From TrEMBL:
Single biological process term from Gene Ontology: methylation
Name this polypeptide is given: peptide chain release factor N(5)-glutamine methyltransferase
Pfam families linked: MTS
The reaction(s) this protein catalyses: L-glutaminyl-[peptide chain release factor] + S-adenosyl-L-methionine = N(5)-methyl-L-glutaminyl-[peptide chain release factor] + S-adenosyl-L-homocysteine + H(+)
């Protein structure tokens, strides 16, 4: 197959980069990478892989796990079995962020960050903010760190913190220093029957959260009021039928300007794109 000028230039740069990185078989790796991403040399092999992928999808393996990547808010993220697949639903957070004022250098925490989609997208949109993605599960942390390193090439910069949000000691350094906390926690009630992609193949800790689905949301809200600056924002994604309970939860924790935001454009047949936002009252004693 004949390759164009720009493809050949990219391949030459890749060969030099692989050698400089100390890869033990740069030519072999380069051949595989070219075959995977630029031009398939073996058409029969490509067809066989396609058939296997279709078979997996028919077995209801999530498409993201089959492809190994997903695009979220214009960012190419690496994902795989054991980590929650980011959904377009979460872009409701970024659309809302575009409409509020946050000072340069504001600290942002993305809790239950998974592969880092929400935090990385915030950093892409607002490189002037100091974003930290917080995740506890080991597999998800590995994908988070990989995506952080991967997106440095796109000049997207964030930090990763492996911590359990139920451990308040892990967040002492952030006490009343954070201007924005965002989270897409697991929020499905434990007994809910889901489509196989979610109920069978996603990690249960990234999907379910107690009898009413709000166990982790309660933990996050309680933690947030110890971390937010006065007038700092808390934003939590959740199920549509949980909106009233979460607004009440926010108000009990002295959050003000509480409202639920629904984005029909980011919604699909798997659910409604919905989140609740609130900000810490200036009157809360710190």
């Amino acid at each position: 197959m004949t390759l164009g000028k720009y493809e050949l230039e990219a391949i030459a740069i890749a060969r030099a980069s692989l050698k400089a990185a100390g890869v033990w078989d740069p030519d072999g790796d380069l051949s595989s990478l070219v075959d995977r991403f630029i031009a398939r040399a073996d058409k029969q092999r490509a067809l066989d892989e396609f058939k296997l992928a279709v078979s997996e999808r028919c077995n209801r393996i999530p498409l993201g796990y089959i492809l190994g990547t997903v695009e979220f808010d214009e960012l190419p993220l690496v994902i795989g079995s054991g980590v929650f697949i980011p959904r377009p639903h979460s872009t409701v957070i970024h659309k809302w962020l575009d409409g509020i004022e946050l000072a340069k250098g504001t600290h942002v925490l993305d809790l239950c960050a998974g592969s880092g989609a929400i935090g990385l997208a915030i950093a892409r949109r607002r490189p002037d903010l100091k974003v930290t993605c917080v995740e506890f599960e080991e597999v998800a942390v590995n994908y988070l760190k990989r995506n952080i390193a991967r997106l440095l090439t796109k000049n997207v910069h964030i930090k990763a913190l492996q911590a359990d949000i139920r451990d308040s000691e892990a967040f002492v350094r952030f006490g009343h220093q954070v201007g924005l906390i965002v989270a897409n926690p697991p929020y499905v009630p434990r007994q809910t029957q889901l489509q196989p992609e979610w109920g069978d193949h996603h990690p249960t800790t990234a999907v379910y959260s107690g009898a009413d689905g709000l166990d982790l949301t309660r933990q996050i809200t309680a933690l947030a009021i110890t971390l937010l600056t006065p007038d700092g924002w808390l934003v939590i994604e959740h199920g549509e039928d949980q909106a009233h309970a979460i607004r009440a939860l926010f108000e009990r924790h002295q959050l003000t300007d509480v409202r639920t935001v629904i984005d029909r454009q980011a919604s699909d047949t798997t659910g409604i794109s919905v989140m609740t936002v609130g900000r810490l009252s200036n009157n809360v004693q710190t």
